């Protein structure tokens, strides 16, 4: 029995070292060498301090800022350790109530805006962590942001255009705007 157990334990420890330690260290080292920005989380810095990541959304509640998509993560919004969607179907009354509440909040923040509310401002993304909004969602919010920041609306639209990203990989998807980067640009423009 010991003759069978010893090789199995040795193989277990060797494979644990290779797959659990050596391989992750090697791939992390290669990633940091080839893609240093991405390998460290695509962090965004302001005045030498990390203020977020380009890859994970943040909650902005101040009406002077562009607001992100609603987050469906547990405990706190944009909680990367609890990524996941709300899993509410289109006929679920809870989803319809949540959408009505979000529309009411958007209308209350900008009562003069009678334009249709873009869907991504009132629905969750699949992960609950989406850092982007559609160009339409950014343009919908532009009058409120411009008014509260005393900026010309044309300047806010220009910032949206400057921060509009193309389709991922140039093939699928719509143009989008990273909310964190746009809000940082707003702070710099003010």
* Number of β-strand runs: 5
Number of domains: 2
Q: What would you call the structural class?
A: mainly alpha
Characterize the quaternary organization of these chains: single chain
Order of helices and strands: HHEEHEHHEEH
Number of helices: 6
The percentage of residues in β strands lies in 5-15%
What descriptors fit this protein?
single chain, 190 residues, mainly alpha, 6 helices, three-stranded antiparallel sheet
Describe this structure in words.
- This protein has six helices and five strands.
- Helix 4 (135-149) packs antiparallel against helix 5 (153-162).
- By secondary structure, the protein is mostly helical.
- It folds into two domains: 1-40, no CATH class; 42-189, no CATH class.
- The chain is elongated, with a radius of gyration of 22 Å.
- Strands 3-5-4 form a three-stranded antiparallel beta sheet.
- A hairpin with a 2-residue loop joins strand 1 and strand 2.
- The protein has helices at residues 2-34, 36-39, 93-109, 135-149, 153-162, 179-189, and strands spanning 43-46, 49-53, 132-134, 164-165, 176-178.
- Helix content is 47%, strand content 9%.
Describe the secondary structure blueprint for this structure.
Layout: H1 2-34, H2 36-39, E1 43-46, E2 49-53, H3 93-109, E3 132-134, H4 135-149, H5 153-162, E4 164-165, E5 176-178, H6 179-189
